[in-house]
């Protein structure tokens, strides 16, 4: 027990600021997400299709050397369509909004002017480029070991009086939130290690048979169909799902990502449309995805506090408040632990 106590304190105060930054940054990102409408409107596919074509054409004229990474479709009929533009010779990467009713594109909002982009970079990479995910994996694994050590120490000293208010608070908060915090750490580690997760789950028995058998698309000519036409074709082919995101043509195929009744907020259904004539080449439903993809239907929503189905405003707010309290608890544990460690030096 003494060994667990010593290493829990030694590692804990070092990780305290990083854990607090991750927890508070994640909570801030959660509240930056748009809240659902009181009643979800049906997809305005035809209006979105026209707006996507007009907006992309305008953005191509305005930023001829830029490339778009994907198009996000709104949750409400009157909300704007968002276009992610990658860096060009004269502009950095950023977002542009397209009016869903008139198809007019707004000005490019560069990443450097977006607080959300900065927080994403901090939360997902610690602003350290390729080194960031490796450091975050190490932090998550070390924090899980600290959780186990802390529980062992708490079990042995739970009946002893705490010598300081900081220690008393640390003992009270830790056991209450330890399981949700462990879940946050595990899901965060998995999300920061997608290649490892896919490799491990692909090796699961029976996964070769679970993956859908899909024939390679036939060779096609130059792109003749617009992304709006591809969107309309995908919505017609899978009417029970809602279009969420459109990816640019790749090897003559446009991928439209759609959400049905799965838990994942962006959806795991994919409709592949020919860029030559907007014909539907294949549909890969969420249930047909291999386990190496389906795991995201649980891991990602758990990490971000997303509720299954189409939750109302009240349920969404309740989930965000709960996840924010968990983030504050993690930051509080890091703070109280660090204070105790510094006072004993």
Automatic annotation (TrEMBL):
Q: Which residues cross the membrane?
A: 12-32, 134-151, 172-191, 317-339
**What InterPro entries does UniProt report for this protein, alphabetically?**
PepSY-ass_TM
Answer yes or no on keyword Nucleotide-binding: no
Q: Name one Pfam family in it.
A: PepSY_TM
* Protein keywords: Membrane, Transmembrane, Transmembrane helix
Name it. Answer: PepSY domain-containing protein
**Source species:** Pseudaquabacterium terrae
């Amino acid at each position: 027990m003494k060994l667990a106590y010593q290493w829990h304190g030694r590692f804990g105060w070092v990780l305290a600021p990083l854990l607090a930054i991750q927890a508070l940054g994640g909570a801030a990102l959660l509240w930056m997400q748009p809240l659902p409408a009181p009643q979800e409107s049906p997809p305005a596919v035809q209006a979105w299709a026209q707006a996507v074509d007009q907006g992309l054409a305008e953005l191509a004229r305005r930023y001829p050397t830029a490339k778009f990474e994907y198009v996000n479709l709104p949750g409400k009929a009157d909300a704007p369509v968002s276009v992610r533009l990658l860096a060009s010779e004269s502009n950095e990467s950023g977002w542009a909004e397209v009016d869903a009713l008139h198809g007019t594109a707004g000005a490019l909002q560069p990443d450097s002017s977006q607080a959300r982009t900065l927080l994403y970079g901090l939360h997902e990479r610690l602003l350290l480029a390729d080194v960031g995910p490796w450091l975050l994996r190490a932090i998550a694994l070390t924090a899980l070991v600290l959780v186990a050590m802390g529980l062992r120490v708490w079990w042995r000293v739970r009946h002893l009086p705490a010598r300081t208010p900081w220690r008393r608070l640390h003992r009270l908060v830790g056991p209450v939130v330890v399981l949700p915090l462990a879940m946050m750490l595990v899901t965060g580690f998995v999300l920061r290690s997608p290649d490892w997760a896919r490799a491990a789950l692909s090796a699961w028995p029976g996964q070769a048979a679970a993956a859908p058998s899909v024939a390679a698309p036939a060779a096609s000519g130059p792109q003749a169909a617009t992304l709006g036409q591809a969107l309309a074709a995908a919505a017609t082919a899978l009417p029970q799902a809602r279009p969420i995101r459109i990816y640019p043509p790749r090897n003559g195929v446009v991928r439209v990502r759609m959400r049905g009744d799965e838990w994942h907020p962006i959806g795991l259904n994919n409709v592949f449309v020919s860029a030559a004539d907007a014909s539907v080449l294949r549909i890969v439903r969420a249930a047909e995805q291999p386990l190496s993809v389906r795991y995201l239907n649980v891991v990602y929503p758990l990490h971000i506090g997303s509720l299954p189905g189409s939750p109302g405003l009240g349920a969404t707010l309740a989930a965000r408040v709960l996840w924010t309290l968990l983030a504050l608890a993690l930051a509080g544990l890091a703070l109280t632990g660090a204070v105790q460690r510094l006072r004993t030096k």
